[in-house]
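dumping the sequnces here before i forget
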Amino acid sequence: MTKQVKQLDRVIIRFAGDSGDGMQLTGDRFTQESAAFGNDLATFPNFPAEIRAPQGTLPGVSSFQVHFADHDILTPGDRPDVLVAMNPAALRANLGDLPKGATIIVDTHDFTARNLTKAGYAGSPLEDDSLAEFAVHQLDLTGMTVEAVKEFGLSRKDAARAKNMFALGLLSWMYGRPTETTVEFLSRRFAKVPDIRDANITAFKMGWNFGETTEAFAVSYEIKPAPMEPGTYRNITGNLALAYGLVAGGVQSGLPVFLGSYPITPASDILHELSRHKAFGVTTFQAEDEIAGVGSAIGASFAGHLGVTTTSGPGVALKSEAIGLAVMTELPLVVVDVQRGGPSTGLPTKTEQADLLQAMFGRNGESPLPVIAPQSPGDCFDAALEACRIAVTYRTPVMLLSDGMLANGSEPWRIPEVSELPVIDPAFATGPNHVSTTKDAKTGEVSEVADFWPYVRDEETLARPWAPPGVAGLEHRIGGLEKADGHGNISYDPANHDYMVRTRAAKVARIADSLPPLEVDDPTGAAKVLVLGWGSTYGPIGAAVRRVRRAGGRVAQTHLRHVNPFPKDLGAILARYDKVLVPEMNLGQLSLLLRAEYLVDTVGYNQVNGMPIKAADLAEVIGSLVAEVEGTPLDLAGTLDDSVEGASR
Amino acid sequence: MTATDLPFPTSGTAGVPTLAEGEKQTGKDFTSDQEVRWCPGCGDYAVLKAVQSFLPDLGLRRENIVFVSGIGCSSRFPYYLDTYGMHSIHGRAPSIATGIATAREDLSVWVVTGDGDALSIGGNHLIHALRRNVNMTILLFNNRIYGLTKGQYSPTSEAGKVTKSTPMGSLDHPFNPVSLALGAEASFVARTIDSDRKHLTSVLAAAAAHRGTSLVEIYQNCPIFNDGAFDAIKSPDTKADAIIPLVHGEQIRFGQHDEEGRGTKVLVRDEVTGGVRAAMAADVAEEAVLVHDAHNPDPTLAFAISRLTDSGYLNQSPIGIFRQVDRPTYDDQAREQLTLAAGSSSDGDPGARLASLIGGGDTWTVV
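..and the predicted 3d for all of it:
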């Protein structure tokens, strides 16, 4: 049978099932196939905090959304075009997100009375007209899988487990995905259990063949590769890119990396990844608690290594006192906070940006430190390297704010040439930096002695010398008590404390001297509204801004990598616009800082539901603000569909 | 694999650079220019003096010695020593020292802490340092009171103690630091006394020589808030009965001496409780007297002996090295993993290896 092939410019697929159904793996494989094919893409895994929530229930639903296109895209997409639902709960939990006309592929095998009840259905939605607005494909995926793999003699349970690969095969056929990488992957992954390996590969291939032969699917789709800048690419998650960035920080500074960490969602994968890179001299220490994690990193930094600690918001709370010690002792330290929903334990597997003020102010006393944030999964690499640069150059703890969406989401990443990466100079102290005069008590003779003072500062950066133990003549003591300027002995002198407090603040402010000008995207140069964000909202903001521009609205966009200190030109940029809109996944934390610093009355768009901001929702907000400021109505009707997210090419 | 066929060093100071032939250090070299500010009569002075005069004996380069402390009176210690040092935050010194010791094999790492710092706010770090056996020496100054915060009871204060925060008496049952350390899998546990310079120095030497975490509890008198807490073991009239000296390979005897100069009291196994009890030497057979074995792989007897410490007012306490066994250290093994991993990477240029790391996985090229 010859089937029709339709051209599409973009598709959003959501794979949803029970948390034991392997939906994350399925989504990840589909993503790798799409990356290998050359589409631009963005992904959004969404899963419960429980490892295995009760089977078949709504809280147990795990999903993976992938958006892939023949053009540059910025987000995993708001509303899926295709939902693959492996059981009634997966259908019910995701149905509300589907636009009219969406395709639904359901595994009918699990639509039993018991499972329907667990999902809260009174009757089967497959048998009434509740799904009338959608194109529904009812398939016994489990049954077909069990049948397909019966030659391998697996238990029924093990055989049924391969159903996710059957589904993957079917979807791979529908969208013309290359299959080699998945077959190779399955061969590697199950190399030690040949029958499971063969069953999975067979299920995957049978799923593909089913799509090609069955009459249920008359059409397959083609999404051409997206034009991208020349280079070598790979698909990468934020946590992996961040771990690589830390390895790069060690290589580029010549310092061994020491990670002191305590496992916490969603940051643990960075610990896992770094523990595999001992060949780079990376030591990973899984500490007894969050405090020991940061404490050991501070100790390693004192000893001349690049101390790093990775955690999430609750861990930062525990580390606060120790981070203050690093502020006071002025030692390099990278603190990675992969933000999740809070407060307290909050929503461990969901995303949020609500630790900004904790990062800024969550310590006793005047305790300033630089705060930086990556804007996309791949950008976590550059942000981590930048955190290392600032920590080492300015002898300071640096807070790197990633979040759950960046951590687990992925995108194609152009692999940088190592020669493009910045070189970081640890500039260890090597000898005396001060001359003291001493007067002999008996003879009155004055003599000069060269000695080492730990709090003599570099004129440009205001950084103090870093003098790890092992060098004769540089013996010195540091600690949490206030130190006298220069010689660094304990000092309770009021004027000295005032001076040191101001100097620590001035040192962090000086970092702004090393930052490039902020890039403002304002194609017409005449926009009156600026949208300003930080961190993972970059994608949704960019997508929303594109929609508004398509409708003819003039809007400017800029995004902060450095939240503290702000780039030096930020004040002047803000002053150029009538309105500044600040979308955040918190109740207005960046807005608070901007208002305090620049007396600018920002407009907030705030969402704290554990999910990324939807581009369509944000576009409406930007659109009405633009219309209000410009005094002319703006019709976004033709642009609110996901299909126009593409860049104005 | 057993401890005996491991390739790791067994000396606590192996890997730390030593003085060149003919170079000499004195206590003065280890004395910083900072004025010591403990209260007059504080036991900390005696310990500081002992440490300053002991350190030159190690023959290590001064710049390769690091003292780390937490918070409390004793934690000012690093400021008074002309070595590298960090006065850190309350209770966290063992974690900071763990980072230092793991990062650098060429450093001799010392932690100075107190009963509040180590056993209350920092209890978690202490037990985990001990079980990991990180190569460092922890000096735990136990004055059984909070000094720096002016006189509240500590986790080693006797129950019922009346202090500023417990006007009707403390309700807390105290820790026995030696029992705690033994329970936490410590490989070296000792107890000594601030005022006995000779014993203190000998214990410091053994602790420094031990590879792994050495815990040294030092009974230290606070003349302001808990004066006299150790009078029974310090007074010439009572100390023979109060101190149970532990010497490896020797019978455990104490009490008034007999004509041969041997203690008239001994320790024997208690068949009723399964523990250890004191007895008059005259009442037991010679072969029933316990011979102290600090190297016994089984810590049961060391623990039983530690229980002879009074938990109330101190009238009796075993003093000496309870336990010293060799066990691979965390830091040696961590460094070995780095060496093993580095050995398997063929290309030595870190930049090239970084390029190969980040360029791994499934990639595609756009031209």
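Chain B has a mean pLDDT of 95.
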